[in-house]
Amino acid sequence: MCGIVGYVGSKNALEILLGGLRRLEYRGYDSAGYAVQSADGLIIRRCRGRVADLEALDPGDAVKATAGIAHTRWATHGEPSERNAHPQMDSTGRIALVHNGIIENYRALRRELQAQGIEFKSDTDTEVIAQLVGLEVTAGKGLFESVRSALARVQGAYGIAVISTLEPGTMVAARHGSPLVVGVGESEFIVASDVAAIISHTRDVIFLGEGEVVSVGLDGMSSDRTPGLLRDRVETVEWDLAEIEKNGFSHYMLKEIFSQPESLTNAFLGRIDLDEGTAHLGGLGLTPADMNAVQRIIITACGTSWHAALIGKYLIESLARVPVDVEYASEFRYRDFVISPGSIMFVISQSGETADTLAALRACRSRGCRVFGIVNVVGSTIARETDAGVYIHAGPEIGVASTKAFTSQVMVLSLVAMAFGRARGVLSRAQGVELAREIKLIPGKVSKILESSDVIASLAREFTFARNFLYLGRGYNYPVALEGALKLKEISYIHAEGYPAAEMKHGPIALIDEEMPVLVIAVKDAAYDKILSNIQEVRARRGRVLAVATEGDEEISSVSDHVLWVPAAVDPLMPLLTVIPLQLLAYHVATARGCDVDKPRNLAKSVTVE
Ligand code: AGP
Description:
Helix content is 34%, strand content 23%. It has 610 residues and is of the alpha/beta class. An 8-stranded antiparallel beta sheet has the order 3-2-4-1-10-9-11-14. It is globular. 56% of the residues are buried. It binds 2-deoxy-2-amino glucitol-6-phosphate. The site of 2-deoxy-2-amino glucitol-6-phosphate (AGP) has 16 residues, from helix 10.
């Protein structure tokens, strides 16, 4: 998604703006630009392409500026180009504005403004806001009031930063649906879409609230929410930049795959109770009686998080005996859904900003249903709008393809299932203790699988030119097959399809031939014998079989072309292991194909548009 950086203070604004944009590159974008205040008005530089292309433009006197705004754009309205890049200006050239989000009524506003003689220079929705602000300034209002009046006219999602030639050293920022954070320094402020662009300057931040408008400048900070100084809202961010850097790995994605023993540990640390065989999830604010009263659970999410949700269904129904409905957020939000008595909802989101998931959350809450978050990004919109929730503590996930966040989501869902199962008396203490012990062994087992990365890399080269892939799994591993297929699709651009293994004979088997690699998750679980039959069906049609199998299985090699080994574990925890070789396979195939693994084409890390 788009990235915003704004600075007012006494330092070199351009250095801070461009450095901030580089920290936000991971969000996915196609053009970039900045505007700074100078004695002679605003200096604007914009281009299609990367931040490096923007830096290559002659800055002129921009190097002397101490206030400005900058932007990386992920196109939503208007193709990627210099004219559609941000900042966008008003007709007088006195206002510059950067925006993340979508203005839903921009066409009507554009027509209205054009009828007043305003000439638009871009195809963007954003320019409408800049023109509205410009009209308010022309009418004599100050920048802060002009932005507030302009925003009162727009519908949709925005995070914006605005500067003007009329108020040097002042920047106005506002958010509604798209996150915005204010870094509070010594006599300086940095506004950004997320903390990655801020923490190298200050760790003291204020997360703007929904609908909030603030003005920052040399005289301090004011808000339409809480007039006067906002120091009491300052929070300190713990993330280190090192967590965001690659730490020697060739890609963020590989670093994040290899950090899963640690991120999985962080997901259960302080929450597992080995004595009582349960999990303590204080963030949910649910007593055992509350959990006992729950009649139905709805889990909604998108993409990889939806795959985690589906595993959550299997876990909660098996361990806690609560019916679970798993819903694509983008479908659920528009459906005339029914909330039966005693229902609660979980929303799962790594970024905490996914528009469809946020909308589903709001739709459910509006009908009086309590909603709980399973989120990674602290302070994100979804995290703030749920009634309560559990952070997965996976740390910043920079690679667009989600890996460590997925396994931490599944880990947290395992803890939820355990807590509900023990509270409802369907999971005995002994069973809970055994599961807790197994959970604590998972990070070590993941580390063992990661040792096979080089083996998987050499195998991956065989599939560099594959055109299709089929992923099959049963039970807990059916959602893992879906996730493995998505991983391969989104970073290698090879078409891959995940399927319940038994369903293959109801159609997809027609696809099987010697050109079709079939990955089968065939671990020693309750479905093992059945999955062996599926492998035979594939082999009978000359399909090439890659099996994910349990260490020590002596039968699987005789029916598979390749085997990816994982340690044994109890069935409910197998997804945490079987997904690892699939993540590595996708990564190595994509790198063998020369794909941009961390920033795959057409994808964004956080889909805050609908
Ligand atoms: C993950 O590999 C995908 N890039 C994507 O499907 C992602 O899971 C989806 O957009 C949901 O994102 P969220 O978890 O941040 O809500």
